[in-house]
Design a protein that fits this description.
Radius of gyration: 13 Å
Structural class: mainly beta
Helix content: under 10%
Order of helices and strands: EEEEEEEEEEE
Number of strands: 11
Shape: globular
Distance between the termini: 40 Å
């Protein structure tokens, strides 16, 4: 059974940082590219960042480039999203996604507000 469990969300002031984690189980994590998406209220789900199975390939949405960093630890079956210089428009529920199984996590809320 595939499981993706996100954590690390919360309330942060503009300019602050958060580190999201997504712990995976039930499939061969090291064989799967991973993605982070986000969905703000009233908006469609948006792709934020992608990382290849070995971590060598990464790609980012223009809106987060230079502020967010995606990484992974294949020994711990975990993918991370380091978010710096956060802005109010980054407020959303953040989801991780596993390519290999087409599976989603339950999401973690990130709120950026003074």
């Amino acid at each position: 059974q595939v499981q993706l469990v996100e954590s690390g969300g919360g309330l942060v002031q503009p300019g602050g940082s958060l580190r999201l984690s997504c712990a995976a189980s039930g499939f061969t994590f090291s064989n799967s590219a991973m993605r982070w998406y986000r969905q703000a209220p009233g908006k469609e789900r948006e792709l934020v960042a992608t990382i290849g199975s070995t971590g060598e390939y990464t790609n980012y949405a223009d809106s987060v480039k230079g502020r967010f960093t995606i990484s992974r630890d294949n020994t711990k079956n975990t993918v991370f999203l380091q978010m710096n210089s956060l802005k109010p428009e980054d407020t959303a529920v953040y989801y991780c996604y596993a390519f290999l199984r087409g599976s989603w996590g339950q999401g973690t809320q990130v709120t950026v507000s003074p």
